[in-house]
Amino acid sequence: MGRMGGNQNQNQKTYSAIPSDYKLLEEVGYGASATVYRAIYLPFNEVVAVKCLDLDRCNSNLDDIRREAQTMSLIDHPNVIRAYCSFVVDSNLWVVMPFMAEGSCLHLMKIAYQDGFEESAIGSILKETLKALDYLHRQGHIHRDVKAGNILLDTNGVVKLADFGVSACMFDTGDRQRSRNTFVGTPCWMAPEVLQPGSGYNSKADIWSFGITALELAHGHAPFSKYPPMKVLLMTIQNAPPGLDYDRDKKFSKSFKEMVAMCLVKDQTKRPTAEKLLKHSFFKHAKPPELSVKNLFADLPPLWNRVKALQLKDAAQLALKRMPSAEQEAISQSEYQRGVSAWNFDIEDLKAQASLVRDDDDMLETKEENESVKSSVGFKAGTGFQFSLGKSNSIAELSQAESRGPTNQLQLYESLNKKGKALEGDSLDRNQENIALRKNGSSTEEMASTSEKDTMQTKAKAVKSRHTQSGPLMPGMLLSHSSSERARNSERCEIENQPPTEKSNREVRRAPSFSGPLMLPNRASANSLSAPIKSSAGYRDSMDDKSKANLVQIKGRFSVTSENLDLVKDIPLSTVPRRSQGSPLRKSASVGDWIFESKQVPTSPSSKDLNSCSVAASVLMPHLQNLFQQTSFQQDLIMNLLNSLQPAEVLDASQNGKLPPLPRSTENNGNVEPALSERERLLLIKISELQARMLNLTDELTAEKLKHVQLQQQLNSILDQEENGD
Ligand SMILES: Nc1ncnc2c1ncn2[C@@H]1O[C@H](COP(=O)(O)OP(=O)(O)OP(=O)(O)O)[C@@H](O)[C@H]1O
């Protein structure tokens, strides 16, 4: 057992890393990879929360986890939950935190406010959350998982933002997904730029999630939460942003609506910073949380009883339902409960789930949708996808091709690829392929993963194996998700089309064309097939100057800052050997983001050369950087793909001379191989084939389901006739 991180501040109490010092009591929550217990820290006789993360389900490097834990323990803000300490116990990581006796906003809504909170409480909760975001952004961090489930409440009305850092490394690493093959994140809270490869994201992604969280608190659920993740993804990218624009929202003030609309602007550069948003009149008039939030818990039973009640209620509901719909429910609940944590998707799971959406349900949805969405096209028979014609040609083309069938889609993909268009970042198809690349493992496992039964079994097993200390345990159940309302998509083009303000114009002008090592790829793009990382200058531009200047790395959900940035900021990425030993730039094993170690910056001859020709360098740098990143990601993706291929297939392909040999060791792939482009081309074809196969299978499945429905209808009519005959 080793201590992972703890607060070093002399003025603060020190918590030991000895498991027997903690008496675990009731389970008070669970997430995708962790169960949270109320516990007593015996030396202080103090109630704390212990989050137990199952390390078996995460192949992350312990060093990365340690770094995350240390960063988490350095967080110091009244609205951000801090880790007292964290340490490994058997195969679990225990994170000790303050106990928030009223649990998360999500829990509270489920138990007592299924249609959301009233505006005054929402204002207070959001204001406190925004203070937390402002702090994190100033420190150079992006939270990336802002949602009601991560806003914790204390009995006296204190609001704290939780769930980052340690869990981030669990969620972000592809290893975790590979090892479990069960995870599919719901992109309900994700900003469009996060969902689209290559576009790059920054702290403004948190502002989008914050806007979605505002809607979640107002309605009791996030927009699109009843849809399968793939559909949510499409709707987020292609529809107008959701808002508080409907009849049911009449009760909300103009300033609340306006604030939400400001957050939910698709163009990230037009979203306000947390600091600026805090000055909005909605927050100026927000009541202190001890006045408005505290009232929410009056007369409610203790948190653990609520959690237990929710679990029992959901279990009973599920048991009552017929299996197919129970499965659907479980999937939907599971997705909602698991939330947005992983910024990775799994195309096959997504497709499988999309095909489970009942058509009759969608017909209703579509009717409603058509009221607000001006033009929409069918996505794919049987899946119920609907989306408006988007701005992007490639998305529209691909979508139409998708609706025409897999062959067309493949052809279009290939033609785009030929034209070079397919490398554009906003290609949905590419996004799907990126997603597909994350898949590894057998389809049997994968299908099983979506079933309620397995989810429960897995959770029960995990809880059993974890809990060796004490405390009554409930088998982990899926939380209920009462959302039945769909989100509406209102056109708010005025907001999006607003001309940039004078200030933002100035910002754009000031924007450096060379983004340096800080221009980090987004997670989606890091996994993209070959999408170039467009200039991610926005990352710095949109941050406060202070944090911009200090940012040196992103780890998990953290980007860590340094005062010595100047030392490193002009080192071109293209001159830095990637992931080779001793390189200052390497990839975090846990999170897939770049880490720059400022102390080890080499002075490379090429950077000197470039400096001697500064004009050319400034023009060249972004291109070189993009090229470098592109190649790196391609390498990653190829490795991912190779890993996902059956070994026999790889062997076969290389023996037949189809594929040039590729070093399988991830240690060696820092250098760009000359044969890479040929290999990439072949692999792209392979990917296309795989995707086409997958689409065919999905189509077959859909056709079978249709047949099944028709047969059932025939059977029903025969039975009716027989009954009438009788
Ligand atoms: N400090 C705490 N005090 C009280 N309850 C907590 C605390 N931390 C977490 N919880 C409860 O446990 C739930 C799960 O915790 P958490 O979100 O950290 O787990 P996770 O596995 O990281 O979840 P997710 O899937 O949302 O990322 C929370 O939604 C909340 O209800």
Automatic annotation (TrEMBL):
List where Polar residues composition bias occurs. 440-450
Region of interest (Disordered), ranges: 423-529, 654-673
Question: PROSITE patterns from the entry?
Answer: PROTEIN_KINASE_ATP (PS00107), PROTEIN_KINASE_DOM (PS50011)
Give residue spans, biased composition: Basic and acidic residues.
Answer: 423-432, 483-495
Single GO term (MF)? protein kinase activity
Coiled-coil zones: 687-714
Q: Which SMART domains does the entry mention?
A: S_TKc
Signal sequence region: none
**Annotated binding of ATP, by residue:** K51
Entry keywords, A to Z: ATP-binding, Coiled coil, Nucleotide-binding
Where would I find the Protein kinase domain in this sequence?
Answer: 22-283
Q: What family is this protein classified in?
A: Belongs to the protein kinase superfamily. STE Ser/Thr protein kinase family. STE20 subfamily.
Task: Report the protein name in the record.
Answer: Protein kinase domain-containing protein
Q: Name the source organism.
A: Citrus clementina
